[in-house]
Amino acid sequence: GKVIGITGSAGKTTVKENLKFFLLSETKVSASVKSYNNYLGVLISLINMNLYCDFAIFEIGTSNFNEIRKLTSIVMPQQIIITNIFPTHIANFKNTRNVAKEKSDIFNPKYNPEVELLILPNSNSDESFLYDQAKKMNLSKVITLGENINSNYHIKKIDKKFNGISAVKIKTNKNLFEINVNTILSHQIYNIIICLIIFNYNDLSLKN
User: Fold this and answer.
1) N or C: which terminus of the chain carries fewer CB neighbours within 10 A?
2) One-character DSSP codes across 28-61
3) Signed CA dihedral, 35, 40, 42, 43: sign only
């Protein structure tokens, strides 16, 4: 099946769990039971992987330079999600640009010749840097999401309701999606939109 790799400053496990939940309605999925995103964790996930699954989802984390490339060269995900670049867990990296550089190894053909899709947020300069890096590496398919109008999945409006529900409108060049999600937190809304992108890219549709 397809291998999906998830990295980013925050939200890796949440995206993995959301994606696993939605994909299980249509496909066979293999994913770690916990937040296994370091070297040992990735190996545990590999050992326990269902070889007959349609999608295998891996979290790929880092706490120092050159760790992403090591894990990427083992997993070699074809479909890559970078959740965000934020100033969290940057101790060894000193700044967010170094974090972005480290994360870019997940889609670098030198370490991952299998990459076919990259999903990126479009909300700050470090994420724009990742987009530029992907273009320099001639990635065939890069999909961006965010509130910027030039995003491939442009978040036109988030209407936060009193009961904790948000009505979200997302515009692409072909469709206008209107979805309700049971959160008012922007990063959680982004995580759901990432799942929508994966479903559309793989030509899947939710029955319910």
Assistant:
1) C
2) -EEE-SS---SHHHHHHHHHT--TT-SEEEEE--
3) negative
Q: For the segment 14-57, what is each residue's pLDDT rounded down to a tens digit?
A: 999 999 999 999 999 999 888 899 999 999 999 999 999 999 99
Angstrom distance (rounded) from CA 47 to CA 192:
28
Give me 61's structure tokens: 């984390």
CA–CA separation, 143 vs 122, rounded Å? 10
Helix (H), strand (E) at residue 131: helix 125-136
Please provide the size of the chain in residues: 208
**Across the strands, what pairs with 158?**
168
53-62, 81-90, 135-144, 150-159: the lowest-pLDDT one: 81-90
Residue range 150-156: average pLDDT? Answer: 96
Q: Which helix (H) or strand (E) holds 16?
A: helix 12-23
* Cβ–Cβ under 8 Å, residues 131 and 142: yes
CB atoms within 10 A of CB 44: 15
Model-level pTM?
Answer: 0.95
Query: What was the pLDDT predicted at 206?
Result: 59
